[in-house]
Design brief:
mainly alpha; Protein S100-A16-like; S100/CaBP7/8-like_CS; single chain; Recoverin, domain 1; calcium ion binding; metal-binding; EF-hand-dom_pair; elongated; 4 helices; 129 residues; 2 strands; binds calcium ion
């Protein structure tokens, strides 16, 4: 008499099978998503600047404030305060022409990306065993 199949056996094999399937599926779709998300993010950064600048090369005070408040309010503190936004603009304005060029705007994007990655590193360190 052969060994009877048990629910437990089937269950453990099923789990293994699904795990393999899951791994194969994740690696492929994850990579695809990663590329498209990143491209999308870069396009968004560029398009937001261009639409805020309305054909001009740089953002004036009001356009900059609008951009920061509508697009970055969730990751950037003090966007409600117009004086804080003005200070931020002064800090970004490298050539001191009173406007924020694309290059100067990228400094802000880089700063935000950097602080996000630091937050992630801190939270994963705190959540570790
Ligand atoms: Ca400038």
């Amino acid at each position: 008499m052969g060994k009877k199949a048990t629910w437990e056996d089937w269950n453990s094999q099923k789990a293994l099978y699904w795990l393999k399937l899951e791994e194969a599926r994740i690696s492929r779709s994850f990579l695809t998503k990663l590329v498209t998300n990143m491209e999308g993010a870069i396009k968004t950064v560029v398009m937001q600047f261009l639409s805020s600048a309305r054909g001009k090369e740089s953002l004036g005070g009001k356009s900059f404030q609008k951009l920061v408040q509508s697009q970055l309010g969730n990751i950037l503190g003090d966007t409600d305060s117009s004086s804080a936004v003005k200070d931020m603009m002064k800090g970004l304005d490298d050539n001191q022409d009173g406007k924020v060029s694309f290059q100067e705007y990228l400094t802000l994007v880089g700063y935000l990306a950097n602080s996000l990655s630091e937050q992630k590193a801190q939270s994963s360190a705190a959540g570790g065993p």
